[in-house]
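Readers of this paper often ask what the protein records in our data store actually look like. Such a record has a labelled line for the sequence and another for the backbone structure tokens. Nothing more is needed to write down the fold, since each code stands for a local backbone conformation. The remainder of this section carries one protein's record, kept here as part of the documentation.
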Amino acid sequence: MPVPCVRVPVEDGEATRQRLADADLLVDEYAITHEDGQLYIPVADPDAVPGDLAVVDFDAPARETPTTPADLLGFEPTYERLGDVVILDEDDPERAREIADAVMRSDVRAKTVVNRASKIKGTERVRDWDVVAGDGTETVHTEYGCEFELDLAAVYFSPRLATERHRVVEQVARGERAFDMFAGVGPYAVPMAKAGAEVVATDINETAVEYLRRNAERNDVADRVTAVAGDVRDVVSGAAGGAQSDGGRERGGYEDWADRVVMNLPHTADEFLDTAVALAGDDCVLHYYDIQHEDDRFGPGERAVRDAAGRDYDVTVETRRTVRSYAPHEYNVVLDVRLERR
């Protein structure tokens, strides 16, 4: 019997499935089906599917009901998946162990279950984890056709931002110069390079930069990614020490270089706006991430960008977008801002 399904290429399947799950649109009665390089994901309400996804009628087979953690627990636990690691956020250690045991006994694909043990801390943006079941915190995460190797205990990575990252990457033109100021393991840098950009990516976390280099190799874009460990302010000015080449331009001196700059450090990105403006070429798009109160989500960021640009650039805000709720009455937002030199 034909049922409404979202049709996507196989390489986009996991990110799309997660996106539909977050919107509570998945249907349990029918199986996700692979055919001719496409995935067909059954959905409950085709009218509620985001407009950028294709909905078709497809003869999806009835699903063989797997054993879920909820079947074993008698309640629906909350968890995230990152590769084959399941992430919990439980205050009660006993409840965390109960959920972890159910996850490992269920049909969920998991080698490790971890529980958040601290908030994100320090300049390297890492947190502590309790390994509740399994062993190790290293995994490989797939997102929109790219693979990212990472260690949760050593680097920052949020699977919740997959859709936002893809939105930015879709704007990238072949041959442009893109600079990722706070790159982590490369979830912006690698797909931008895959889209044909020459990318320079920096991060103060040396372990994250090592993973970034591995991920550039893993995704066959090492020749278009220059990865530099250090404070981006020093890298841009050329004050970070000797030159270092990772398949791109040698380190040091990137003023007036970029066609696109990504600033995904929402708590303190405003402190780096002078550096972002120094990076900008004659026509540059700046993706500025911020966290602000619901009463004025975009105003502080827009004013900060305009102040940093001064009289050197005409400033046009092309996109004002709420990425997600961050805390009560606070939102993670992004401004796409075009800087055009006067």
The two ends are 61 Å apart (CA to CA). The first strand starts at residue 3 and ends at 9. The CA atoms of residues 4 and 46 lie 6 Å apart. Confidence is low (pLDDT under 50) at residues 241-251.
